[in-house]
Amino acid sequence: KGYKLERNILTYHKLAMRVVRDSARRTGVETELLGDDSPERFEIFKQARMDSGLTEETLNDEDAATMVSYAQNSLVNETELMQLISEFGGTDSIIPKFAKFYLAYIKKLRELNKIDYGEAIVKAVGILRDPAYAAVWANKYKWIFCDEYQDTTPAQSALLQLIGQQAHLFVVGDKAQSIYSWQGADPDNLTQFETDFPGTVVYQLSKNYRCFPKLVSMSSVFLKRAGEDNGLRIEYDQKRSTEEQKVYFLKNTDGEAEARSLVVLIREALKIQIPGDPPRLATVGVLARKWHLF
After folding, report:
1. What span, in angstroms and rounded, lies between the C-alpha atoms of 232 and 207?
2. Which tens digits make up the pLDDT trace of 82-139?
3. Among 113, 152, 159, which Cα is nearest to 133's?
4. How many C-beta atoms lie closer than 10 Å to residue 105's C-beta?
5. At what angle do helices 61-73 and 154-164 cross, to 10 degrees?
6. DSSP letters of the chain?
7. Is residue 1 over pLDDT 50?
8. If 0-12 CB within 10 Å is exposed, 13-18 middle and 19+ buried, where does residue 20 land?
9. Which residues lie below 8 Å from residue 237, measured CB to CB, with a gap of 6+?
10. Residue pair 110/136 in contact by the 8 Å Cβ criterion
11. What pLDDT score was predicted for residue 12?
């Protein structure tokens, strides 16, 4: 029997919006989703800065979005945050101003009956913690598959726990490959999974087919020395044993020195010719967390 899966291939945010819209249909209270680049969202940032004594020089829109997302992804308790503001430092301290900014942003968002992507999950979790709604959604999905579980946030993990307790749940992840902790992801969600979902069966995959041998070996040593190997020895694919790509570790004193080191390395890499007829010149990709770092 074939199933149409397209409708149920979802991001966590899209799943959360289903819960929010279902609640809206039942209560008659509709909310409008604001995109990340919505001018209205930037206007709310501006008002929240004014309310919290911040300037755009202190907290620009990009950093404001990152901070708001981190707080939402972490399911920050707003009542507790309000109570803790006085403990964060004096009136000139920047930390309480950041806390006030977040609370002002969320308050204004809700006054306007709007939600952004992070608030969608926060709101969905709140809805599903109501037993009446939990009963509606508990058996909605019989099978749930989640990839890259090590990069789930506390908010996403909570959403999955509320929806997936009665489902056949299958997740894939590798704590060592977590790259979104700066955005609120918690790789411990993976190690905590067996506690969150009793009866879990774990299958360890110990062979790396994706990476060349020296990268696998270096990574394994690094993880072991950092105490993060979890007793698992990762092996590379023997079919790739003749590959000789190099791994470079650059140690620099500051950002400018790092940039100069990268330029030297990139220039050398661009001289490499890739075998073929005719040979192709190498290309180089540079990854950074934010645009302003380039």
Report:
1. 10
2. 988 878 765 568 999 999 999 999 999 999 999 999 999 999 999 999 998 888 888 8
3. 159
4. 25
5. 40
6. -----GGG---HHHHHHHHHHHHHHHH----EEPPTT-HHHHHHHHHHHHHHT--TTTS-HHHHHHHHHHHHHTT--HHHHHHHGGGS--TT-HHHHHHHHHHHHHHHHHHTTEE-HHHHHHHHHHHHTSHHHHHHHTTS-SEEEES-GGG--HHHHHHHHHHHTTSEEEE---GGG---GGGT--THHHHTHHHHSTT-------EESSS-HHHHHHHHHHHHHTT-STT---EE-GGGTT----------SSHHHHHHHHHHHHHHHHT-EESSSS-EE-------SSGGG-
7. no
8. buried
9. 207, 208, 209
10. no
11. 93
CA Rg value for the chain: 23
pTM above 0.90, yes or no: no
What's the longest Cα–Cα distance across the chain? 68
List phi, psi (to 5°) of 171.
-125, 150
Q: Which residues contact 291 (CB under 8 A, 6 or more apart)?
A: 62
Q: How far apart are CA 69 and CA 30, in angstroms?
A: 22
Distance between CA atoms of 165 and 169, rounded to whole angstroms?
8
Q: Which two tokens stand for residue 42?
A: 């930037």
d(CA 192, CA 196): 6
C-alpha to C-alpha distance for 123 and 107, rounded to whole angstroms: 13
